[in-house]
Amino acid sequence: MAKDDTIENRVYLFDSLASSYISAASELLSSEDEAVRARAMRALADLAYVSCVVADTGHLPPEQVRQRVLGAPEPASPERDEDDRNGKGKKRK
User: Fold this and answer.
1) How many C-beta atoms surround the C-beta of residue 12 within 10 A?
2) 90 Cβ contact partners less than 8 Å away, ≥ 6 residues apart
């Protein structure tokens, strides 16, 4: 569970990003075209996601935060030797 200060950071970041976006995209958000409105709402959802990722990863270097925001997979950890896995799994060749 996120600490209270992390939740506050999420809210602050989202409030700041969303208010700027809403100012710039108010016509899109109130469009009569349902597809246009849906895209604008997805953009708001993306801003919420980014706010959470950034608030929750303050301990990481910027490149790792970027990877998380972009949804890039985590770099694979090197395969451990059989001894490290208590004799379970495949042996390295």
Assistant:
1) 12
2) 82
What pLDDT is recorded for position 72?
A: 76
Q: CA separation (Å) from 9 to 3, 14, 34, 36, 39?
A: 10, 8, 32, 30, 25
* Helices and strands in the chain: count of H runs, count of E runs: 3, 0
* CA atoms of 70 and 89, how far apart (whole Å): 32
What pTM, to 2 d.p., does this model score?
0.68
Tokens at 45, concatenated: 């959802």
What is the C-alpha to C-alpha distance for residues 16 and 56, in angstroms, rounded to an integer? Answer: 17
Between the alpha carbon of residue 11 and those of residues 29, 35, 36, 47, the distances in Å are 21, 27, 26, 11
What per-residue confidence (pLDDT) applies to 93?
A: 46
